[in-house]
Amino acid sequence: MSRLALRVFETHHCPAAILTSLHINITTLSLPQTRQLHAQILRTGLSLDSHFATKLLSLYAHHLRFSEANTLLNSIQNPHVFSFSTLIHAYSKLTRFTEAILLFSRMIISHGLVPDTRLIPSVIKACSGLDNLRIGNQVHGFCVTSGLCQDSFVQSSLVHLYLKCSRLNYAHKVFDKMSHPDVVSCSALVSGYARDGRVNEAKMLFGRMVELGIEPNLVSWNGMVAGFNQSGHCLEAVKVFRNMHLSGFKPDGTTISSVLPSVGELEDLSVGVQIHGYAYKHGVGSDKWVVCALIDMYGKCSSTMEMSQVFYEMSQRDLGACNALISGFARNGLTDDALKAFNRVRSQELKLNVVSWTSIIACCSQHGKDIESLDLFREMQLSGVKPNAVTIPCLLPACGNIAALMHGKATHGFSLRTGISDSVYVGSALIDMYANCGRIHLARICFDRMPVRNIVCWNAIMGGYAMHGNANEVIEIFHSMEKSNQKPDFITFTSLLSACSHSGFTDQGEQFFNKMSKEYGIKPRIEHYACLVTLLGRAGKLNEAYSTIENMPFEPDACVWGALLSSCRVHNNMKLAEVAADKLFELEPNNPGNYVLLSNIYANKGLWKEVDRVRDVMKSMGMKKNPGCSWIEIKNKVHMLLAGDTSHPQMIKIVEKMDNLGMEMKKLGCLPVTSFVLQDVEDQEKEHILCGHSEKLAVVLGLLNTPQGSTLQVIKNLRICGDCHGFIKFVSEFEEREIFVRDTNRFHHFKNGLCSCGDFW
DNA sequence: ATAGGGTTAG
């Protein structure tokens, strides 16, 4: 402000008109000066001319004094569109979109003013910022009828609105009407198609751009690379990166960090290393985004050494990089390194965020550290970091794995309170959790209440029912899935087939197996063949099962032979059992389960010499039977019981109760099934060994510590043993309890002396 | 007066 102007301004009788007529630039006035000027004008008693009022408005907006600006606006007698525009532009620029739109509506409705081409782009921007297509559409409609649509700024902003609201076709329509399509709209549209996975359309438009004489720039290329990367078209992303290089464009940090995730996804280490060198050469090697992406890429390519090296060479600690490091370790199964890295970050000055916590929780729940996972979740909340819609699906499997139903329910409650329970990820994880905790009806309620479902949700509920041996439900859900136009995938058929095998639906199972390739075009995988073998095996069609294995288009794996071996145990088929076992010993020489299964079969027939032979082999290989282990949740605490373990503080009571129950059983004429003991020992001794089975211990512990009539829930790390199965059936009737036992294979739901598996497992 | 891109958790 010139000295003269200031003097004029400071004298008390200076009407605003003088300032304007002097062509004084008042945009630099400070807030007090603005207020002084405003007050001065009011004192003169002159009505504000709208031109000057607009200047004052923009001053207030510039100083973020929106309430004063609004008061001023309201005091203008006949406000001009410009007065409103000034404020609307300001709101829009500050991302205060709601206020921008409200003011816009007031301008039209209360004042009957008509917007011009300058105002529209700001309003459209506010609509896209709010993802508000409804108002956006109205504004678009107005632009069409009023002819404002001819303006290229208006068109450009409309293209962005429709892209933002994922209405690619509308965006394209607007773009096609542009008389002078510009590089910005065109690039945005290309990137939109790429993000949507519409590879060919993206490429064609990119080609047309060149034909139209619009030179693609760095942003155009980057948008395409990032778009393909986001839609998971990794190969395309890398190809575009190459083409860009061939076209003579130098990549920047954005390009590199957009292409690297794709390289990682493809696990193409050599390309990754090349790009690493390339980034270095172009001087973006220490860009923090690039470093993050490099750590991620090396982690995905299983090069944890290189990953750590990049991390430690980083000049400045960055939380994103730390998180990438943690998840890189976790991805490669290095849980201890992940925990170490996590704890190191925790003890440093960097504040962990929701991603850090979620990564480590996922790491634990995916690698058998379920209790740690639950503990970390608590610590996370104590530290004041709020879990989000990703954290919950990472935590829920931990609850399911150890059947920590109370924790699971609490987590469910949390997701309802925070409004994330509608997410398909959260919903599927809840279904899995409840199914794994034996509460299939609660899983069903979650499923039924989902507003949107994807294939994962359908598979989750079907898998749940399959695990519970309820083939009728699985098939029924499969039909409603088809009705709702959801296409099945290979996992759907795994659930269908395993449900049929658990329920003895042999014919239906075979039909589904045949249909999956013929009608649904899904090639059976090896796990489907394993289900088929179990299906036939259960029905006693052991020879058919065997020929299925011989004729399948894959090299049979341990699952397939294991399925045959289990069936041989049920039907006492020694000959095929030995064939299957031989294959298993070849494929998994160090898996004690196979040896145990075979020796059980021998023991069942009283072939103790053979039993000894198997035991000797195990011994000579230094192999031990995996210790049986069961879990039970009592009053929010998860108890772990090992087979033969007498260290539990309530052991005396447990043994007493067990003896009592054993006597009651004998009174009713139920004898223990001693063939489930490995060793050839006297019957009484066998009985003693059976007493120590972990699932029995857990059930009795549950009986002692829970109220009469409440449901018990036990998880076992091995398949349930036949003696325990009989014992628990008895207990369910005698004690009038429902008892759920989840073994490695399926659920056993004991009620009134019967089990849902129909004694087949 | 309008408009463009990137990392880490499922």
Detailed description of the structure:
It holds the Pfam family PPR. Keywords: Repeat. The protein is mainly alpha-helical. Helix content is 66%, strand content 4%. 45% of the residues are buried. The protein contains 41 helices and 6 strands. The protein binds one DNA strand of 10 nucleotides through helix 8, helix 10, helix 12, helix 14 and helix 16.
Portion in beta strands:
under 5%
The termini sit apart by: 90 Å
Shape: elongated
Q: Spans with pLDDT under 50 lasting ≥5 residues?
A: 677-687
Biggest beta sheet attributes:
6 strands, mixed
Oligomer: single chain
What order do the strands of the largest sheet run in, or round the barrel if closed?
A: 2-1-3-4-5-6
Instruction: Tell me the total number of β-strands.
Output: 6
Mean pLDDT: 87
Structural class based on helices, strands and sheet pairing: mainly alpha
Number of helices: 41
Helix content: 55-70%
Rg for CA atoms: 35 Å
Annotation keywords:
761 residues; mainly alpha; six-stranded mixed sheet; 6 strands; 4% strand; DNA-binding
Write the layout of secondary structure elements.
Layout: H1 3-10, H2 16-21, H3 31-44, H4 50-62, H5 66-75, H6 81-93, H7 97-109, H8 119-129, H9 133-146, H10 152-164, H11 168-177, H12 183-195, H13 199-211, H14 218-230, H15 234-246, H16 253-265, H17 269-281, H18 288-300, H19 304-313, H20 319-331, H21 335-347, H22 354-366, H23 370-382, H24 391-401, H25 405-417, H26 424-436, H27 440-449, H28 455-467, H29 471-483, H30 490-503, H31 506-518, H32 526-538, H33 542-551, H34 558-571, H35 574-587, H36 592-604, H37 608-620, E1 629-634, E2 637-642, H38 651-667, H39 683-691, H40 694-705, E3 712-716, H41 722-734, E4 739-742, E5 747-751, E6 754-755
Parallel strand pairs: 3-4
Antiparallel strand pairs: 1-2, 1-3, 4-5, 5-6
Helix pairs in contact: 4-5, 4-6, 6-7, 6-8, 7-8, 8-9, 8-10, 9-10, 10-11, 10-12, 11-12, 12-13, 12-14, 14-15, 14-16, 15-16, 16-17, 16-18, 17-18, 18-19, 18-20, 19-20, 20-21, 20-22, 21-22, 22-23, 22-24, 23-24, 24-25, 24-26, 25-26, 26-27, 26-28, 27-28, 28-29, 28-30, 29-30, 30-31, 30-32, 31-32, ...
This protein binds one DNA strand of 10 nucleotides through α8, α10, α12, α14 and α16.
